[in-house]
Amino acid sequence: MMKPVYLDYNATTPIDPRVFEAMRPYYLTEVGNAGSRAHIYGHKAKNAVDQARVQVASLLGRKGEEIVFTSGATESNNLILLGLMSHGTGSSRKHVLATCIEHKSVLGPLEKLRASGFEVELLPVTAGGFVEPDAVLHRLRRDTLLVTMMHANNETGVLQPVTEVAGLLAGSGVLFHIDAAQTFGKEVEALRGIQFDFLSISGHKVYGPAGVGALYIRRCGSRQIPLKPLMVGGGQEMGLRPGTLAVPLIVGLGRAAELAGQEYQQRSHQAARLKRRFLGALEAVDHRINGDLTRMQSHVVNVSFPGVDSEALFLALRSAIAISNGAACSSTGYMPSHVLKAMGLPEDQIASAVRFSWGVGVEAIPHEALLEAVSRLSC
């Protein structure tokens, strides 16, 4: 039997074979611990980690010493938000701004900040799924510690105004964190042109391995912004993330970043071509695009089909297309999307919403099967 076409790239991307090949030696022959200084295996492992650090930083137009490796964007987000608590308390800056459509790996730590006496404001979004920059400007205060904002929403693909917000925060003393899990390696030029203090990265969203990510931490000369580690141990990763480094995974993330730097334009053009064809095909059935198309990434479409329950559509398409209707990390069961609710969509439109996301390796979206299923289920 043929497998269904995988169209859930926002949940995770397939690993690039070239990335896998770069990792292979560090599983089979180059077995050193990057913290072992006494022999050549340890030195080789450290050199491989240092190279990956530069590869990741270079994609952002930054320096290798500003990269801390983590297990993924979820850990990076937690490290920033919870790691700044002590600094915020000590500096009497206990006000934090975020958006109401953030990933649960941001919303969860924000709840912990609230429980610890911080004031957290969640900014509203428009019906198009994005925050207006003025909403940030009007809520900045003397005691604002941090603005945290995703670059692109994982459910809708709608890009947030991070460039404009960075301009508003310049010189204010307010720290700026971007969750770039969905845009690292994709919106390359945009990220290179933004001034930010922290940025979260996940390897498995950019054709790298799962279980590895990074946190960019801006340095001012020899100084870096004060963060407290969430764990203590051997002092690895600038004392912020103790534990033996996963050398093969880090090598894979570095190689994935390098390939993204070489190929992001080609990938984006191909994704945009597929999107144009897909949107054209959808005209054959009643549908609603969820999110502002003019602000949406080229490889994502979140769409509702009136009268068609998303779970029923998944069942009807299980042998043809693999798609989703929410954040893969949100829970073990389906919950109505907090993102689509924040956009003010009616309940029936949320219940019928599905997300299509694609990338390298997808040559065509089998819209015929989709249209047949939608037509049949909407009768």
Q: In a nutshell, what does this entry contain?
A:
The chain is an alpha/beta fold and 379 residues long. The chain contains 13 helices and 14 strands.
**Strand adjacency order, main sheet:** 2-8-7-6-5-3-4
CA radius of gyration: 21 Å
CATH architecture of the largest domain: 3-Layer(aba) Sandwich
Give me the CATH superfamily of the largest domain. Type I PLP-dependent aspartate aminotransferase-like (Major domain)
How many β-strand runs? Answer: 14
**What integer is the average pLDDT?**
95
CATH topological fold name of the largest domain: Aspartate Aminotransferase, domain 2
Kindly describe this structure:
- The two termini are 29 Å apart.
- Helix 3 packs parallel to helix 5 (104-115).
- The radius of gyration is 21 Å and the shape is globular.
- It has a seven-stranded mixed beta sheet, with helices on both faces. It has a three-stranded antiparallel beta sheet with strand order 11-12-14. A two-stranded parallel sheet has the order 1-13.
- The model has no long low-confidence stretch (mean pLDDT 95).
- 47% of the residues are buried.
- The chain is built from 13 helices and 14 strands.
- It is 38% helix and 15% strand.
- It has 379 residues and is α/β, with parallel strands linked by helices.
- The protein has two domains: 5-14 and 263-377, Alpha-Beta Complex (Aspartate Aminotransferase, domain 1); 17-258, Aspartate Aminotransferase, domain 2 (3-Layer(aba) Sandwich), CATH 3.40.640.
- The longest helix is centred in the last third of the chain and has 36 residues, at 247-282.
